[in-house]
Amino acid sequence: MMKIAVAGAGYVGLVTGVCFAEMGHHVICVDKDTSKIESMKTGVSPIFEPGLQELMRKNISAGRLEFTTDYKLAYRDRGAIFIAVGTPERLDGAADLTHIEETIKQIAGMIEQDSLIVIKSTVPVGTAEQMESMIRLFLKNDVKVEVASNPEFMSQGSAIRDTLYGDRIIIGTASEEAEILLRTIYEPFELPIVTVSRKSAELTKLAANGFLALKISYMNDIAALSEAVGADIQEIAKGMRLDGRIGSSFLNAGIGFGGSCLPKDIKALDVYARENGQELKMIKAAREVNDKQQTVLFRKAKTLLEEFHGLKIAVLGLTFKPETDDIRNAASLVNIELLLKHGAEIQAYDPTGAKKAAAVFPEGKHGEGTIAYSRTLEQALEGADVCFIFTEWEEIKSLRPALFKRLMHSPYVFDGRNLFDLQEMDDAGIKYTSIGR
Ligand code: UGA
Prior knowledge:
One of its GO terms (molecular function) is NAD binding. Keywords: NAD, Oxidoreductase. Pathway: Nucleotide-sugar biosynthesis; UDP-alpha-D-glucuronate biosynthesis; UDP-alpha-D-glucuronate from UDP-alpha-D-glucose: step 1/1. This protein is about 45% helix and about 15% strand. By secondary structure, the chain is α/β, with parallel strands linked by helices. The chain folds into 3 domains: about 5-195, Rossmann fold (3-Layer(aba) Sandwich); about 205-290, N-(1-d-carboxylethyl)-l-norvaline Dehydrogenase, domain 2; about 295-435, 3-Layer(aba) Sandwich (Rossmann fold). A 7-stranded mixed sheet has the order 11-12-10-9-13-14-15. It has a 6-stranded parallel sheet with strand order 3-2-1-4-5-6. Helix 1 packs across helix 3 (about 50-60), helix 5 packs parallel to helix 6 and helix 9 (about 200-230) packs across helix 12 (about 280-295). It is elongated, with a radius of gyration of 24 Å. The termini are far apart. Bound molecules: uridine-5'-diphosphate-glucuronic acid.
């Protein structure tokens, strides 16, 4: 088993470190955030991710997982150093590589043995090569280094499963030695390993996220047509899913894709393409469809109700998807802003995301509208005139139509996730609007 360092104990770094430890490697996660490291040492995960904390505790107890703020200690005598620091979006949409560059310089100043540095963060094509040139300029000791690319494919809410039982591992290296080392690290995972050039590995990640975005936007486009002609997008998706060439996932029409990855990565793809004299027309279209889709529910409600002033609106689901507390680029935020502008009185509920949403829209008055956060789903629905559904949390999915009828003042339900049966809602006397059907 190998001794591995993971630089950056954020979402990707922590999940990666924990999963390497689970596979038997000895892992040290290093980060400059002292309070985060201190709490992780005691087995407390700073992020909400199903199964993560349990696995953290198990591997800390087994002595395979450590946390430190001491970079020198972290980089000493390691088989490989994985970089998983953030690459936030720059104003022009490209990735900001400041944290990667800082980490590279830091490693250069500290390593005393030949090292393989592996970039896990999502980065522009060519970053591994550039970082290899950079590290050579800053090396303090006479050692050999290679920088490899090993993008991650974990989704929030299922990150542990995606890492331990994912579809594939992509390894981009420049030498056979690095390839063998990375193959050895990943051998216990027993997953298909694809070895490619570093640039191909970097572009595979962006192309994969871009393709997922295309699939969603395509279904949202077809949903609009489906609605116009009286077909049902869910029936259409059911038929399409069985075609192995299309694939069974990412065919759910709804309120568009949010989160920190798909929106950011397709913007970055667009920028890199243009920087390289290319135009990715489909990616551009996916973005346009998504921007429009995020407000589709509000527009439908506006057409039907005309006026939101003084209406009590229950908002169910704030996060960009279930099993996370992340609200970045969530459609709920765009719609809440519009509803508040139009004078609505919002009662919002989310099992995990309310705290973060309250940081964007604090409880109280916002112009002519107001927002409050309910502790339970029922509390949010109580006395509401209209209900908006933005996230397919299990407890929202399992609501019975009769409950809307019983708790709400006048049951208008606008569902951005197509969670309910049209007939059942109609039978229960609910005015139900969903997407593409
Ligand atoms: C995405 C990719 O799925 C991961 O493979 C990748 O590793 C990750 O980005 C990353 O780059 O780090 P994530 O953003 O966590 O993962 O979430 P997804 O499951 O991809 O969902 C993104 C958005 O698409 C959500 O808002 C979701 O509701 C929406 N979606 C997804 C749909 O509207 N319809 C679908 O059929 C599927």
